[in-house]
TrEMBL record:
<dbReference type="InterPro" id="IPR038969">
    <property type="entry name" value="FEN"/>
</dbReference>
<dbReference type="Pfam" id="PF02739">
    <property type="entry name" value="5_3_exonuc_N"/>
</dbReference>
<keyword id="KW-0378">Hydrolase</keyword>
<dbReference type="Pfam" id="PF01367">
    <property type="entry name" value="5_3_exonuc"/>
</dbReference>
<protein>
    <submittedName>
        <fullName>DNA polymerase I</fullName>
    </submittedName>
</protein>
<dbReference type="InterPro" id="IPR002421">
    <property type="entry name" value="5-3_exonuclease"/>
</dbReference>
<keyword id="KW-0238">DNA-binding</keyword>
<dbReference type="InterPro" id="IPR020046">
    <property type="entry name" value="5-3_exonucl_a-hlix_arch_N"/>
</dbReference>
<dbReference type="InterPro" id="IPR029060">
    <property type="entry name" value="PIN-like_dom_sf"/>
</dbReference>
<dbReference type="InterPro" id="IPR008918">
    <property type="entry name" value="HhH2"/>
</dbReference>
<feature type="domain" description="5'-3' exonuclease">
    <location>
        <begin position="1"/>
        <end position="255"/>
    </location>
</feature>
<dbReference type="InterPro" id="IPR036279">
    <property type="entry name" value="5-3_exonuclease_C_sf"/>
</dbReference>
<dbReference type="InterPro" id="IPR020045">
    <property type="entry name" value="DNA_polI_H3TH"/>
</dbReference>
<keyword id="KW-0540">Nuclease</keyword>
Length: 263
């Protein structure tokens, strides 16, 4: 048994960005065809007993309520691509792949919720298909993350090599360094290497904050000024996992396989 969770918009946007040319119906058609081929390949590669594609619903989420500038500078999805996404969603039933999009939360929250529920219900693996670094927080012996485009697992060794921390420290790292693309402030002038160094010394964000007065130079000054922003950023990079998704495991079972548990 295994659950495959596809971060649908991560896959679709990456494919669309790689298709050359201006926005057009032809470009979107190529994106649709390549995206559906990618979903088919993922099902064939991982051969899960259960699978689901998770989409962003769009609109405001709890993170916008928490911090108004959240994702304020993100470019809206082109209208033609919105139509392409709807075409993809309509075609997924033919692949035997259920899909969801839940109002008020991000796809990330729904994915984290599915991971949490699966790990409580089963000791079998769960695979997240995504290149989103936020999911590295969820890595453990049961939860794997697969880079569909490079054909590579993003495991603890990858996190250590890329970011210099453990998966358990990724949320704290993201809180310290922030993320300009999502409008997550982080601590001013604290980048990935500095954040990783602080976490190697202190272990976690709470201890970094507690020991901020011991950090010298401009980093120390910025850290002491940025305590509240660091705490806010930590909430913004976390996942909301208490929203009902209206699913049963039976709904996610691949053809010929059924499980009766629900949540």
């Amino acid at each position: 048994m295994a659950l495959l969770i596809i971060d649908a918009m991560n896959i679709i946007r990456r494919i669309h960005e790689a298709v050359p040319g201006p926005e057009s119906e032809e470009r979107v058609a190529d994106t649709v065809a390549s995206s559906l081929a990618s979903f088919r390949r993922a099902l064939k590669t991982h051969r899960p007993t259960h699978a689901v594609a998770v989409f962003d619903h769009g609109g405001r989420t709890w993170k916008h309520d928490l911090y108004a500038p959240y994702q304020a500078h993100r470019q809206p999805m082109p209208e033609l691509l919105k139509g392409g996404v709807r075409t993809i969603q309509q075609a997924l039933a033919g692949l035997g792949l259920h899909w969801i999009a839940i109002a008020g939360i991000e796809a990330d929250d729904a994915i984290a919720t599915l991971v949490e529920k699966w790990c409580k219900a089963s000791v079998e693996p769960v695979i997240i298909l995504s290149t989103d670094k936020d999911f590295l927080q969820l890595l453990n012996d049961q939860v794997g993350i697969y880079d569909h485009f490079k054909g590579r697992w993003r495991d603890a060794a990858y996190v250590q090599e890329k970011f210099g921390v453990t998966p358990a420290q990724m949320g704290d790292l993201l809180a310290l360094m922030g993320d300009a693309a999502d409008g997550i402030p982080g601590v001013d002038k604290v980048g990935a290497k500095t954040a990783a160094g602080l976490l190697r010394i202190n272990g976690n964000l709470d201890r970094v904050i507690s020991n901020a007065d011991k950090v010298s130079g401009q980093v120390g000054v910025n850290l002491r000024k940025g305590v509240e922003l660091a705490r806010l950023s930590r909430r913004l990079v976390s996942f909301k996992t208490d929203v009902p998704l209206g699913l049963t495991w039976r709904m996610l079972a691949q053809p010929g396989r059924e499980v009766d548990d629900s949540y």
